[in-house]
Structure formats: C-alpha cells, structure tokens
Amino acid sequence: MARRAVGAISGTVSGWALPPRCPGCGTPVSADHRFCAACWSGLRLLAPPWCAGCNRPFAFDRGEGARCAPCLADPPQHRGVRAAVAYGPVARQLALKLKYGRRIGIAATMAERMAPGMPEGLDLLVPVPLHRWRLWSRGYNQAGLIAAALHRRTGVAHDPFALVRRRRTVALKGLGARARRKAVAGAFAVPDRDRVRGRAIGLVDDVYTSGATAAACTRALIAAGAASVTILCWARVIADEAAAAD
Hints:
The chain is α/β, with parallel strands linked by helices. Helix content is about 35%, strand content about 15%. The chain has a five-stranded parallel β-sheet. Strands 4-5 form a two-stranded antiparallel ribbon.
C-alpha cells in the first residue's frame, strides 16, 4: 500500500511539474495526446462520404459504391487508405516532429486518432520499412513506431519484419507520379511468405502522398500471398498538396 501511495503521489507531482502538452504547439492541455483548441481546429478529420476504392473524401455523398476518377481509371490493389486526417500545417508539424525531431511519443498520439478508422477484420499490422542504412542513421522507423502504438491500442498483431526494403530509393519529394512509381518499383520484398500468407494486412505509414510507396508495398504483400492490404496512415495528402509533402 505504501508503494502504491508513493507511486500515486509521484504521478501527481510529475503531472503538476510536467503537465501534458499539445503535440502540435506545446500548449499545456488536460491530458496526454490531446490538442489545444487552435491545433484541433487546424486538423481536418477524414470520414465518409468517400471513394469506395481508395477512401478519397468526397464533397458530398455520391451514393453507395461510388469511386473517384483515379480509381475508375486504375483501380488500386489495396482495399483503401484509412487516414486519420488530411495533410495540412498541423498534421505536417506532427509528422516532421516524429520523423526528424525524435519526438517518438507522437506515434502514440497518431495511433489514438488512427485506431477508430481501422476496418474490422485486420490480422496483422505491417509498417512500411526503411532501408537499413536509413534506419541506422535515423535510429528508428517512424512507421514502425506507429504500428507498435496501434498494436498496443487495438490488440491487432504487429510484425515489423514481415516486409523489407531491399534497396535504397531516392527521396520522392518533388518527383512526379511516374518518377515516384519508377523509384520504388521492386524495392520491397517479403522474406518469409508464411508471415503474411492468407492474412488481412494493415500497412502502416505516417503520410500517404501519391500512393507510389503504398502501391509497391501492396504488390509485394499480395504477391507473397496476403489476402488483402489496407493502408493505415496518420495523414493523407488531398488534391494538389502532394508536391509539398515529405
């Protein structure tokens, strides 16, 4: 009892001395992973109505089964992109803090918003992998941190080694759609097919931009026998914002 009492007192003191802060701007807030009013209003949450193929949001309900023009022209192999928010200044700030600022706790903040949008029936969470040299220089894979946080939040199994990046790729920022697809073609592989065969995969990443990386990962997973792949991400670039995204 004494130990629990000391722990409770320590938690109270820590909470007073180091109050939870908004992950966007650092303003003190009421609880961990909460946003201040200004940052919350700067987030655009994504929800139906949306494309039945890729979950691109529609301005109005187009009816059951409606698909966007890109999906009609070139249907994706995956079963949609479940993004928590649209890419914008606040969403971008969090992605940069996690990716380059070593603010690894933000992965849990992202998972808190991503979990409600996950479809039912997923068997396995698989992060988009980094090449080993980039992983070595950065020290962690931001997609892996998000996938682990989603696992803790939802209980869905997590395998950070089911998919590997077998060669280095150039930075995709600033490249056109065709150049992005070419850059990642054949870059991903499944070293052990038994880890994904017959399973419904949730492919986890931080930001969905043009879809080139997600498509390349999906092809590798489906070729290895995965039953399906759904993209799970923190933010999705909408319309003409792709050129500005990392």
